[in-house]
Amino acid sequence: MPGQHGGRQHDRSRQHDRSRHNDRPRHNDRLRRLRAGDRVSVVAPAGPVAPDLLDKGVAILSAWGLDVRLGTYVHARHPRFDYLAGTDGQRAEDLTRAWCDPETVAVFCARGGYGAMRTLDLLDWDALAAAPAKVFTGSSDITALHQVIGSRLRIPTVFGAMVGSGSFVDDPVAQDNLRRMLFAPDAGVLLESPRAAPLVPGRARGIAVGGNLSLVASGAGVPEIAPPPPGAIALLEDVTEEPYRIDRYLSHLRRAGWFRNVAGIALGSWVDCGELADVREVLSDRLGDLGVPIVWELGFGHCRGQLAVPLGSEVELESDAQTGTARLRLTEPALA
C-alpha cells in the first residue's frame, strides 16, 4: 500500500489518462438522456414492493411525462422467503423482458433490500448485450446489478433513489435530483451537499465506480465483475452497518486489491451506522493512507435529499481543505 499522504495535495487528473480511456464504457450514442414521451419499465429485482409506495412513485414518473410500464412480477412475493420480490426466476425474467423491449428506453428498479445478486446467474447476458442499451437506475442492493451491467454491457448507469421506496416518494429533493440526472446530466453539473467536507485534499478525474459498500465488497474477486479501471473515482456509502463491519468490508477490499487503480474516493451517507464520528474515524484509518483525495459525506446513498450519481461516466473529484470545497463535477454528459 502507498505510504501516508501527509496532508499533501494530490492531483491524479492526468496520471492515468492513456490507460483510463482504454477502459471507457461502450460509446453511449445509443444511451441517451430521457425526455417526455419515453417508455420506461419498473421492475423489482430485489426486495418486495409496497403497492402504495409504488403507485405514488409511478405517478411521479408519469408526471415527468414518461410512459410507465410495470414488470409482470413487480408485485410478486417469493413463496418461502418474505425478503424477496417473487422467485429468482420471476425477478430475472422481468428484468430481461424490460431490457429486451425495443420500445423501452430506461429500466427503473422499484426498491433494494436484498435479492439482486440472486438474479445474476439467471439473466441472459447475451440477449441483454444484443438489445438496445437502456438507462438503468437504482441503488442500495441494486449495486450488484450496476457492477455486472457496467462490466458486461459496458454502459454507464445511474445510482439514485428508487421509485417504489419512501426515500423517493416522500423526498421531493431526491426526486428532483434523480430527474435532473436522467433528463439533464450535462458536462459541468456539480454534485455537492451541505454536509460534504474534504477528508484528504486533492483533485482527481476518472470513471466513477462503486455504490453500496457491502455489495461492492461482496463482488470483489468475482470473475464477471471487473475491478476499477485505472484512475477510477470510487463512490461508497452504506446503511445499518456498524463501524466494525465497515472496517471489515474496507479491509477485504484492500486485501483484494480493489483500491489499486483508484485515484480518488467520494464517500456518501452512513445512515444508522453508529456515531458518525466513529464511522469517519474508521474510514479515515482504512482509506487515509491510500494517497488519494477523499471527500466525506457527499450526500448520495440512504440519506434525505440524496443525490443521483453516475457510474461508468467520467467525473472530477475536488477536495480542498483550504476552501472547504468537497464535490464531484461531471466532466462529460452522463447520458448523451
Write up what this structure looks like.
α9 (213-219) packs parallel to α10. The protein has 2 domains: 10-24 and 186-330, 3-Layer(bba) Sandwich (Glucose Oxidase, domain 1), CATH 3.50.30.60; 34-183, Rossmann fold (3-Layer(aba) Sandwich). The protein is globular, with a radius of gyration of 19 Å. The strands form 2 sheets. Strands 1, 7, 8, 9, 10, 11, 12, 14 and 15 form a 9-stranded mixed beta sheet that branches. Mean pLDDT is 93; it is low at 1-9 and 12-29. The N and C termini lie far apart (37 Å). It has helices spanning 17-22, 51-63, 88-100, 116-119, 125-130, 143-153, 166-169, 172-183, 213-219, 243-255, 276-287; strands spanning 10-11, 39-43, 67-70, 104-109, 135-138, 157-159, 190-191, 197-200, 202-212, 232-239, 262-271, 294-296, 309-311, 314-320, 325-330. Helix content is 30%, strand content 23%. 54% of the residues are buried. It is built from 11 helices and 15 strands. It has 336 residues and is an alpha/beta fold.
Key structural traits:
single chain, 336 residues, alpha/beta, Glucose Oxidase, domain 1, Rossmann fold, 2 domains, six-stranded mixed beta sheet, disordered N terminus
Chart the SSEs and their pairings.
Elements: E1 10-11, H1 17-22, E2 39-43, H2 51-63, E3 67-70, H3 88-100, E4 104-109, H4 116-119, H5 125-130, E5 135-138, H6 143-153, E6 157-159, H7 166-169, H8 172-183, E7 190-191, E8 197-200, E9 202-212, H9 213-219, E10 232-239, H10 243-255, E11 262-271, H11 276-287, E12 294-296, E13 309-311, E14 314-320, E15 325-330
Parallel strand pairs: 1-9, 2-3, 2-4, 4-5, 5-6, 9-10, 10-11, 11-12
Antiparallel strand pairs: 6-13, 7-15, 8-12, 9-14, 14-15
